[in-house]
Amino acid sequence: MSIKKWMDLDIDNLELLEVTNLEKARVKQHVLKKHKKAPFWRNIAVASIIILGATVTTGFAFPTIASQIPFMDQIISYFKDENQTNNFETFSTDVGLVQTSNGITVMIENAVYDGTNITVSYAIETEHPFNDSLSHHWFDVEGAIAASGSDAMKKITDTHYVGMTTITPTFKGDVHPETVQVTWKPTSFSDNEGVEVKGDWYFAFSVERLEGNLELLNKTVQNKDVTFTLQSIEYTPVSTNISYEQVVSDELLQSWDSVTPVFKITDNLGHVYLDKLSGGGMSPDHFKTFKGTTEFGTIQEEASQLIIQPIGIASLNDGKGQIEIELDPIVIDLK
């Protein structure tokens, strides 16, 4: 069947399933969405999907379970106040995979890969009495030798959660591929009161890298114990990414177990992008050197300068104490 015939389907008159008018409308909306479709890089049977028709070669797949989740196209709206969601809907890949197991339905909505980080939006519908906190197993990225990131989840009703996960993979030679292949096998969901539900969910999808503008900087600030070099900054339609290296003295490490950088990042107009936060990184030599990346949202168009202040957090770990080592700010003129 041609793509045109798929687009002209009269969904309101289909009798394939007994569904509500709302569900029909949401399936139709999914067909007409302008997001690009994520290519499946493993067996398409891993997703709980149903295809209208016996044989389809056009690539249109319709996750009917997603039509039963009323917030399937609204996940990003719950994170609008978070800077990293800027332009997410416009430039993200439409994943649209759904699976149900043991009373929990999980849907991956969209994903975006900015060349450094992968951000994924997802939703959960559950029959089980979880509290406000809900944790799960991490995403995997093929070819990554390590990964870090963050996960924000919000409970929006007694049975519904929405989430945004950012994954920062590290690849051999620090060479990031043009396409990343992501898998997610949660295995179980649990809260901090001991409620745990195991199940069988498995997702696989790939996301292409967004085009960005990379600027090499190699700007260094230092004091007697810490040398920090801002190696580069990359601007993409959804994010700003900085790459850096920190080197600390042996004397400092004799007193502290670890030294990691966080950042205060503002512009000349006073907008705050990060306030003592950081991203993922690695140290091959017990924090003598530390290489990492940090992501924040797109910069305000009116700004002419970006001000990045590194702060070294020297810590004894395990809550035993820490100090902050402030370095001079690095000022970047925006083009």
Automatic annotation (TrEMBL):
Q: Name one Pfam family in it.
A: DUF4179
Q: Which organism is it from?
A: Ureibacillus xyleni
Q: Which InterPro entries match?
A: DUF4179 (IPR025436), DUF5643 (IPR040680)
Domain DUF4179 stretches = 40-125
Protein name, UniProt field: Uncharacterized protein DUF4179
Q: Which UniProt keywords apply?
A: Membrane, Transmembrane, Transmembrane helix
Q: Where is the DUF5643 domain?
A: 217-332
Chain segments annotated as transmembrane: 40-62
